[in-house]
Amino acid sequence: MVQIKILHRYDISPPANSVPATSLPLTFLDIPWLLCCPMQRLFFYDFPQSAPSFAQTTLPLLIRSLSLCLRRFFPFAANLVLPIAPPQKPYILYSDGDSLSLTVAESAADFAELISDEARDAALIHPLVPQLPPPCESDGARAGPVMAIQVTLFPNKGICVGVQFLHVVADGNSFTHFMKSWASIHRSGGDPTCVDPDDLSPFHDRGVIKDPNGLEPILLKDWWSLVGPSPSQSPSPNPSEALLAVADKVRATFVLRKAHIDGLKAQILSQLKNNDLDSESDSIHLSTFVATCAFVWVCITKSKGEEHERQDQLDRLEYSIPSTYFGNCLDICVLSEKRNTLLGKSGVLHAARAIGRRVKEIGTRGALRGAEEWIKDYKIASDGDLVTVAGSPRQKVYDTDFGWGRLRKSRMVHIDVSRAISLVESRDADGGMEVGLALTRVGMEKFISLFEKGLKSFRPL
Questions:
Q1: Beta pairing class for 308-314 and 387-390
Q2: Are 421 and 435 in contact (CB under 8 A)?
Q3: 199, 180 Cβ separation under 8 angstroms
Q4: N or C: which end of the chain has fewer CB within 10 A?
Q5: In whole angstroms, how far apart are CA 56 and each of 25, 51, 313?
Q6: Cβ neighbours of residue 39 under 8 Å, at least 6 residues apart?
């Protein structure tokens, strides 16, 4: 496990009097994420700078640019307010002076090992994740911060920006927008007028999310029934519990090049034809996302024996919303397939058809089918085996540019305990994918064998 030395802690707010007191209601698209563990992301960069140089030049600019960024992304400096009794609805509250916690640390750990794709103990990188300060209780409610950031310097080698935030406040697109905006302001020397022209302001009006089917009261009632009085801010374990939960796990990153994915798609279409399913070939939705998820799902099933998968699909509502909408705009899809089907010779084909069919339904028939069961589905899934897909190659996380050079490695740490796989675009921008996951050591050995065997079967000659 990485050893770190805490150097400083700061409370970072938007510039004084730059943001009015604001209360943001949770929409029906936010409520299910009250049950989700906090999101934990790490961004590693090469950074050949000494500790004194970092403290004198880079750190002040990081602080200033973060404060300026929070002027537009103020909900990340706000508090999540949880009433302690039903039927009240939680909400996000920003008051002037609210802040997020920024921790500055230093480590002598092997930076090259931390960014390696090879299997490593999952607990190795957990000290690089900041801890959310505990909530406070007053006036019949519990209020707590929604984001914390930690910057860890590896002198003369690298730097890691670690973030922990509550999913109920924002989805991956909103978070990525925030990170790129912060990076852009930092890259410009702290001048908010010189940011990337593509960096549009976040859209905070929750009124654009319509609820014609009356899902909000259903989901809110189900949430209260599940959590009971005095709900906690999030179902996250404390640091010692988290380390215990991953004590027997290793994590690794697997890269699928574009040539691999093209070969995988060709293999799926060939199996489709050979299985006398060619008449349905025009209806199969075989994107890079679908093909990758299908292949990984089957490999995990064979290594662990699981047969369910959850996908979080973005931006498929029957009405338009701004592309910079800040909040959650995800349709939760839970798929299941018979284990024997996934273990069969055409397992990847059947997995791709199941995933592709659901993705196509979202795009052509509208989203939110079965949304009234989201909370109940979560309870069922949390009691069983589930493979969750976190992230998306569309977010282009490797474009998060602080001015230190291209991002070396992106990690989603929460997958260690959430049983998810992470998906991001390939760092090499070749149309490939990076897949991250954490398994027991025995499970990982099986997965690596299955993954490498699969690559060979559809690798171009």
A1: parallel
A2: yes
A3: yes
A4: C
A5: 41, 9, 43
A6: 163, 164, 165, 166, 167, 172, 175, 412, 414
401 catalytic residue (yes or no): yes
Task: Name residue 220's beta-bridge partners.
Answer: none
**Which residues touch 113 (CB under 8 Å, ≥6 apart)?**
120, 124
Residue segments in the chain with a per-residue pLDDT below the cut of 50? 281, 307, 313-316, 318, 461
Structural tokens at position 190? 């702290």
Give the pLDDT confidence of 394-408 residue by residue, as tens digits: 899 999 999 999 999
Measured in whole angstroms, how far is the alpha carbon of residue 415 from the centre of its chain?
Answer: 9
Decide if 35 contacts 140 (C-beta within 8 A). Answer: no
For residue 428, the model assigns a pLDDT of: 86
What pLDDT, on the 0 to 100 scale, is given for residue 313?
A: 46
**What is the C-alpha R_g of the chain?**
22
Tokens of 94: 């920003």
Count of alpha carbons within 13 Å of 117, Cβ hemisphere only? 12
- Cβ-proximal residues to 159 (8 Å cutoff; 6+ apart), any chain: 44, 45, 47, 49, 54, 151, 152, 153, 404
For residue 315, the model assigns a pLDDT of 41
Residue 350 known to be catalytic: no
Which H or E element spans position 66? helix 59-72
Distance CA 398, CA 17 (A): 33
- Give how far Cα 352 sits from Cα of 275, 292, 378, Å: 14, 9, 23
CA distance 404 to 46: 7
The two beta strands, 100-106 and 5-12, are antiparallel
Distance CA 410, CA 27 (A): 29
Would you state the torsion angle of the CA atoms of residues 120, 121, 124, 129, taken in this order, to the nearest 10 degrees? 100
* 348 φ/ψ angles, rounded to the nearest 5 degrees: -65, -40
3-state secondary structure at position 60: helix
Residues shown for the chain: 461
Contact predicate 27/175, CB 8 Å: no
Give the span between the Cα atoms of 418 and 390, in whole angstroms.
10
CB atoms within 10 A of CB 229: 9
Question: How far apart are the C-alpha atoms of 332 and 313, rounded to whole Å?
Answer: 7
The phi, psi pair for 249, rounded to 5°, reads -110, 155
- Identify which of 330, 340, 284 has the alpha carbon closest to the alpha carbon of residue 28: 330
Q: Which of 248, 385, 399, 401 is catalytic?
A: 401
pLDDT, position 334: 78
The catalytically annotated residue of 167, 186, 204, 260 is 167
> If you search the block for the tokens 């010189």, which residue do you land on?
194
